């Protein structure tokens, strides 16, 4: 895809994000934010037999943040919870597909951080830590 097509993908997922909304009776509900830019997210996971059966998110933020949350939540449906915890920075950036400045990378990675934490929590690892700064490196 060309850069223009990726920009269009970001705009489409910002205007009409996939998986936006709350789940009734989620297995895991996790909220996080990036206080530097004001992005906020709540991730809802429905897990059955260690598989992500459904995922939704709510929150507010810029186009990059919203598109990232939309694309990442869509990409993890049906995957194992272990796969969710093993997502990497590059996975999120590949979905966005455009070059981002260091500040904007954190916008794209907040949904990744929240999904990884939700995965750890669903595995019973409530003490797990995922740093937005570490993901950004």
Description:
- By secondary structure, the protein is an alpha+beta fold.
- The chain is built from 6 helices and 3 strands.
- It has a 3-stranded antiparallel beta sheet, with helices on one face.
- Strand 2 (about 40-50) and strand 3 form a beta hairpin.
- The chain is globular, with a radius of gyration of 14 Å.
- The two termini are about 25 Å apart.
- The mean pLDDT is about 90.
What are the defining features of this structure?
6 helices, three-stranded antiparallel sheet, alpha+beta, 137 residues, globular, single chain
List the helices and strands and how they pair.
Blueprint: H1 3-15, E1 28-34, E2 39-48, E3 51-60, H2 63-76, H3 81-85, H4 89-96, H5 102-122, H6 132-136
Antiparallel strand pairs: 1-2, 2-3
Helix/strand order, N-terminal first: HEEEHHHHH
Beta fraction: 15-25%
Distance between the termini: 25 Å
Order of the strands making up the biggest sheet: 1-2-3
* Helical/strand content category: alpha+beta
Poorly predicted ranges (pLDDT <50, ≥5 residues)? none
Count of helix runs: 6
Which term fits the overall shape? globular
Number of strands: 3
- Report the C-alpha radius of gyration, rounded: 14 Å
How much helicity do the residues have? 40-55%
Q: Main sheet, how many strands, which sense, barrel?
A: 3 strands, antiparallel
User: Averaged pLDDT, please?
Assistant: 89
Task: Give a quick summary of the entry.
The chain contains six helices and three strands. By secondary structure, it is α+β, with helices and mostly antiparallel strands. The model has no long low-confidence stretch (mean pLDDT 89).
